[in-house]
Q: What sequence folds into this?
């Protein structure tokens, strides 16, 4: 089968055939099922993707810890998955979730708590929706 | 400066300091500013990110073509950027856009036109919002 045919199957077919990168990962975007806000961008390996599908909870693969990770296992801030979608070439996953509390390890609802502003070519950030729902020093202490 | 201090600055500061990966890229999620739907997940290098900020249009870096790419330059399906946000560790970008027509090269509004379904452990896809707004064979022909 040619590469083009294979791509066509993956893009137009209904077979679930995630395309993992060289590290065995796909990119996952989690959005708030209620508001549409992007909560986080993270990675899933095959096991994380399968567990997310099978359990209806958000599972990821931590590149820094090199470990499978159930979202909220330390913090209690779990994700109930409402819908899972694959993108055209099946190397990205979009999950719509009901997020308990904060998705971000900094204690914010979303990891995207800063907007980019450009003042005459001078680019900086400003806080947006940056309220901390928990204190990371308390939640993640050993 | 320790790695921890540097991470803290990047996460809690207001300096724009995108964290590019080994290939010089950050992940970008584009959502529909009106509906919150995820339209696409793609990559930006420094030039694409700077051009997106400076012009208010979506620019990306194509890994397959190894080239900077203005969204819609072939198809006319451009993106006007409404807001740009950086995530906690500044290796992912969320842009809210007004998408002209279809974001996906397959002609669909969004790249995420298939949902994952699990029937007793048998995982497959089903089309959702998969109407084609243009014919790729016509739009991308040489």
A:
């Amino acid at each position: 089968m040619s590469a083009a045919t294979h791509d066509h199957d993956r893009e137009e077919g209904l077979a679930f055939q995630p395309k993992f990168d060289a590290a065995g990962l796909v990119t996952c975007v989690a959005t708030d099922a209620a508001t549409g806000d992007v909560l986080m961008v993270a990675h899933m390996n095959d096991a994380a993707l399968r567990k997310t599908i099978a359990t209806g909870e958000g599972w990821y693969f931590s590149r820094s810890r090199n470990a499978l990770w159930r979202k909220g296992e330390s913090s209690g801030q779990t994700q109930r998955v409402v819908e899972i979608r694959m993108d055209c070439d099946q190397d990205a996953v979009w999950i719509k979730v009901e997020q308990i509390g904060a998705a971000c390890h900094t204690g914010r609802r979303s990891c995207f708590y800063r907007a980019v502003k450009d003042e005459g070519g001078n680019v900086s950030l400003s806080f947006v929706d940056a309220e901390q729902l928990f204190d990371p020093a308390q939640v993640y202490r050993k």
Remarks:
- Chain A has a mean pLDDT of 94.
